[in-house]
Amino acid sequence: MSDLPSRVRILEEGPREGFQIEKGAIPTRRKIELIDSLSETGVEQIQITSFVSPKAVPNMADAVEVAKGFSRKPGVRYTALWLNDKGLERAIATERLDIRGSLSLTASETFLKRNQNRTHDENVAAVKSMLGTYKYHKVPVNRASIMAAFGCNFEGDVSVTKVLDLVQQLLDLALEGGVTLELISLADTMAWATPASIHKVVGAVRNRYPGLELSLHLHDTRGMGIANAFAGLQMGVKTFDAAVAGLGGCPFASHSGASGNVCTEDLVFMCDEMSIETGINLEKMIESALLAEEIVGHPLPGSVMKGGSLGRLRQKVKARLAQ
Amino acid sequence: MSDLPSRVRILEEGPREGFQIEKGAIPTRRKIELIDSLSETGVEQIQITSFVSPKAVPNMADAVEVAKGFSRKPGVRYTALWLNDKGLERAIATERLDIRGSLSLTASETFLKRNQNRTHDENVAAVKSMLGTYKYHKVPVNRASIMAAFGCNFEGDVSVTKVLDLVQQLLDLALEGGVTLELISLADTMAWATPASIHKVVGAVRNRYPGLELSLHLHDTRGMGIANAFAGLQMGVKTFDAAVAGLGGCPFASHSGASGNVCTEDLVFMCDEMSIETGINLEKMIESALLAEEIVGHPLPGSVMKGGSLGRLRQKVKARLAQ
């Protein structure tokens, strides 16, 4: 087990991943309440909202209000998502966010076409244009991501060669744009990964680019999220996106595409129990998870929020033995 | 990944694990319907019911009717659970089951006391007595299990030494009783295991008893079930208990103790995708899972039954490409 990292970074995406897919409108003040609760957990980064078209994602129409309303806690980075210049400019204008640029390519052109209505070449052109915008606004860029890196509902399995090609394209685009990528996120956007494919893909990228830090963005649609995170840990991955309570997926709806990030507190639990530091207080993250469930008004997929931590049980055992 | 087995045995415990904890009464004919559905999945063993006191477990009062009612499919073993001579004799009397004996010790005496109202010594005496009963009825005995092998809600963490001691005690008891144990099941009865502790405990037992086959009985209360199964596969474990749809646990109740076996079809999905043969047809197991959910009348924890298999998606991709 000596290959497991001693410390990992778990980046919270619940407020953005979760609320965007909810059917009913979530009141702005409740979104802010969840962000403020997450700020108390020790998590180092919270993606609070998405500056996208309110027509496409009605639940994100209040992005500016959310950004203006939460309480900044020192030491926490507050980020957001945008897909174009207009979104970025709205995010910057709030003057309340930690604006960092990220480049994104997609391993499935069919998915890209459906998701962003672009061909791969159009997407590369958009990345180049975005790099110009980041430069103009003096936004630091050090991260990129590859969507659908493990498979696609519309194109099927994605080859390791394809992922390696995209990593190289991202590095080339960054070089051309005068930025240095420190981290590439491999996203299992449609939940095709298994521990074996995590080993295979992460291993191949790591072999070719030993200096590049990798992160994993895992979805749990087929129940593999935590196992895939463990496989990532075994490959030395030190950064994970996650969503409190498993927000983003409803286990009671049929899933047509992406759904449900790996659950933050379940991942923190696993790390805690395996002596991997996360900096996150599990009990506080469970409180945030219960709050998230109350806010959306239906059961969320997280397990530890229902099963409880072992820390609490160990305390009870200790107390009983001390009697 | 070369240490993963090429074939595993997944033993179905859903009808027993699942129905015993349901609050409402499940009609006998529906229990039989699920067993008959499971018989069509290719699974090699189904634990169909529990011959225990109807006072303690009201939902198992119809054990004899269930045993008499299902349709035996050639090639499938139909087993049941009992905790004493009376239960065993009721099971034998049905003349419809594959009666095999199993010895059981528990790593936590506090749990044993609460669960079976016995001290460890009383439990050892009960095992000896049961061995006599098995001999009398000519019941083959080749399996044993250790409950609470990874931790206990009432005693806390369980040491590896404790587990090793219990393995030795079981082997001694078997030797004394004139039977040969081929397999010892390590049960994570209260969901304390993580992939790290699976590696540690399975590794220690394997090191000391290299000829002994191990199986894992995993609960998913804290969302670690599939990750723990993967860790087991990495340690060469080839036999797993599982429950269709994750029966046995309700994600919407607070868990005070044991709950929810690892989900059969999620485990089959992971194995399929990692080229590990199970002999089980995933699509048919998903059908059984959906039937189980309909029978209990509330959502069950399984993921692949909601997210769908990748096999189906690959077929669609192929069909589209062929157009």
TrEMBL record, chains A, B:
Keyword field contains Cell division: no
Domain called Pyruvate carboxyltransferase: residue spans: 8-286
Pfam families membership: HMGL-like
GO biological process: ketone body biosynthetic process; L-leucine catabolic process
Gene3D superfamilies per record: Aldolase class I
Metal-binding is among the record's keywords: yes
GO molecular function, one term: metal ion binding
InterPro entries: Aldolase_TIM, HMGL, PYR_CT
Entry keywords, A to Z: Lyase, Metal-binding
Family, as annotated: Belongs to the HMG-CoA lyase family.
PANTHER family cross-referenced by the UniProt entry: HYDROXYMETHYLGLUTARYL-COA LYASE
Record protein name field: Hydroxymethylglutaryl-CoA lyase
Species per Swiss-Prot/TrEMBL record: Jezberella montanilacus
